[in-house]
Automatic annotation (TrEMBL), chains A, B:
The protein's name: 5'-deoxynucleotidase
Gene Ontology cellular component annotations, sorted alphabetically: cytoplasm
UniProt keyword Hydrolase, yes or no: yes
Class in the EC hierarchy, top level: hydrolase
InterPro entries: HD/PDEase_dom, HD_domain, YfbR/HDDC2
Cofactor(s), by name: Mn(2+); Co(2+)
């Protein structure tokens, strides 16, 4: 392992610093969708920032009380595993195989930290992935919502490029309603408008 | 004002959505320093993500108990005013004049939201800027820390480019100690190493 901070004698702090250097690679991991103005493909760090702000902004629409601190921390770190595993498109056939890679990646990246912090972040990441707690259900809303709005803003974006249909989108995103009925109502309306405007193909 | 979501009948929600589209412009606002691997100039969204993660990661070094939720939210939104005001270099002579522009910008950008949310974000932004509360003091640590580490990782980066000296850096960053004595100890060591390695010029 590269020692970026060889002058630091405290091993705990050195690990924390090396961790922040390592996760910076997310800034070079491009996602499939473009930022709202279509100027560039979004990277994982930009994505994590937007969905964290979204959760703060739209917290009033949660179906239940949530610990918003936990929601935000989950969203800020949920993509860190992609430092080694890369981004896998939601509609890709490889999406379920990707999970094994991500588990390995999580062990490696959070392994930069001492046991207590490693366990803390690993458990938050797993909680997010399992989508069983209220916080995980609410956090997932924003991870799904952002690309939908990006595709709307860019007149179809990845949907057109990869032949994604209305029913495929519904299948992959309908669990938004488990976190927020109000946001799911908005999404249904958004998708309808996308079909009407020709951004998204709907099966007969 | 552009109505991006003309099909949404709820004015509150429509304002929230327009707000998230507007602040996305931060992804096109380049800062002066490069990301840790030197691959590109960092943008404001990437910066906000990194310093939020840093605050979570290094919270144990705060000089006092902090409400970490508040710290993170401050860090996630602290640069939103730059959507209209742009980024001003910490060592620029224009730095104090920039504040008036930022006040106007804050009114405008948070004005997308209804009064309660506008006030909530405005007051958090002002609290951060004034650096009087424990949360603001601790949050500021990371806004200052990140570019120092970026310049270390890129062998001098903006310090060399803009002839910034050791004493100028100390003057602009010594308030880090108000938020965290341990992180300030690290910074002093880091700067010393930067001088020894020729990344940062020190006056005789
Ligand atoms: Ca700034």
């Amino acid at each position: 392992m590269n020692r970026n901070f060889d002058f630091v004698s405290d091993k705990r702090l050195e690990g924390q610093l090396d961790f922040i250097i390592e996760i910076d690679k997310l800034k070079n991991i491009a996602r499939k969708s473009m930022v709202f103005d279509g100027s560039h493909f979004e990277n994982d760090a930009e994505h994590s920032w937007t969905i964290s702000v979204l959760a703060i902004l739209l917290r009033e629409y949660a179906n239940f009380n949530v610990n918003i601190e936990k929601v935000i921390i989950m969203l800020l770190i949920h993509d860190i595993v992609e430092v080694y595993a890369g981004d896998t498109f939601l509609y890709s056939a490889k999406r379920s195989a990707a999970h094994i890679e991500e588990e390995k990646s999580a062990e490696k990246i959070f392994g930069f930290l001492e046991e207590d912090q490693k366990e803390y972040f690993l458990s938050l990441w797993k909680e997010f992935e399992e989508r069983k707690t209220n916080e995980a259900k609410f956090a997932t809303v924003f991870d799904r919502l952002e690309p939908l709005v990006q595709n709307y803003m860019t007149q179809g974006g990845t949907w057109k490029k990869y032949n994604v249909t209305y029913q495929m989108v519904i299948d992959k995103t309908s669990h938004i309603q488990e976190g927020s009925k109000e946001i799911w109502d908005f999404v249904k309306k958004l998708l309808q408008v996308c079909v009407e405007r020709g951004y998204l193909a709907k099966e007969e």
